[in-house]
């Protein structure tokens, strides 16, 4: 079968298309024939070595397809079932992947594999950020950075479902239109406006209840300055680079702020929590209540191009690798 392999950490050129043996599903594993794989920033962290992994490896932490066969002890899936996963397993940049049954979720009828792969990781991220990290309630105001990105567009929609007022940051008028279409009530152009000053103006100097920030280094100071006293800074990514040199005293100086650096794996750690989040997200997609915007689809051989596009921060929506299935 074909798979993307990383032998040495580095730039997108480290992604190499190779012929590899078909994996044999072990106890509790399912062999999934992939139809689509999500391209996410965590994949770039794995590829670059920022999150080190044993070498060589096949990247990709989100995929959807059809069960080919199962290993000993599998009880929830059988050949022909449609399934997907996000977080907790690698190997999605390939024709087939052996995935633990514990990380797989069923894909409901009415949801295409491409939509499941596009929605699952980023949709569950939006879900846990708005229901667990800071549980939005009607009347809350949140700031969503990169509001036209893959997570941002879903965050705007889920936050509106929960009755929040949404302020989104974008770089262009086209992205502003996308963010407004996803539910953003107010737009701040981070390329030409002072984000914190605009947020203070829009909130009558109060600040927002929570900042959802997947950008990191470039937005860190403005995010903290946008929060109300005792507000929550939810850092869930670092597309612009890591935040370094954090002095906890700044949280006190800005009026007892809360800070978390969270990740999806910790909010889908149990089977029950995974099925709850995945079930709600894919159910919303099936029912048309959550719209997934796919920016572009690439063949497996073009994985390096997909990484370059993602890291350019010029995309709006989800990037996918599509496979023969």
Features:
7-stranded mixed β-sheet; Quinone Oxidoreductase, Chain A, domain 1; 6-stranded parallel β-sheet; 9 helices; Rossmann fold; 325 residues; 2 domains; alpha/beta; globular
SSE layout:
Blueprint: E1 2-5, E2 16-19, E3 29-39, H1 41-48, E4 62-70, E5 82-86, E6 96-100, E7 105-106, H2 113-133, E8 141-144, H3 150-161, E9 165-170, H4 173-181, E10 186-189, H5 195-202, E11 208-213, H6 220-225, E12 227-235, H7 249-253, E13 258-261, H8 271-286, E14 294-299, H9 303-311, E15 318-322
Parallel strand pairs: 8-9, 8-11, 9-10, 11-12, 12-13, 14-15
Antiparallel strand pairs: 1-2, 3-4, 3-6, 3-15, 4-5, 5-7
Helix pairs in contact: 2-3, 2-8
Architecture overview:
By secondary structure, this protein is α/β, with parallel strands linked by helices. The protein has 2 domains: 2-120 and 271-322, Quinone Oxidoreductase, Chain A, domain 1 (Alpha-Beta Complex); 138-261, NAD(P)-binding Rossmann-like Domain (Rossmann fold, 3-Layer(aba) Sandwich), CATH 3.40.50. It contains 9 helices and 15 strands. The protein has helices at 41-48, 113-133, 150-161, 173-181, 195-202, 220-225, 249-253, 271-286, 303-311, and strands at residues 2-5, 16-19, 29-39, 62-70, 82-86, 96-100, 105-106, 141-144, 165-170, 186-189, 208-213, 227-235, 258-261, 294-299, 318-322. Strands 3, 4, 5, 6, 7, 14 and 15 form a 7-stranded mixed sheet that branches. A 6-stranded parallel sheet has the order 10-9-8-11-12-13, sandwiched between helices. β9, α4 (173-181) and β10 form a beta-alpha-beta unit. α2 (113-133) packs across α3 (150-161) and α2 crosses α8. The longest helix has 21 residues, at 113-133. It starts with a strand and ends with a strand.
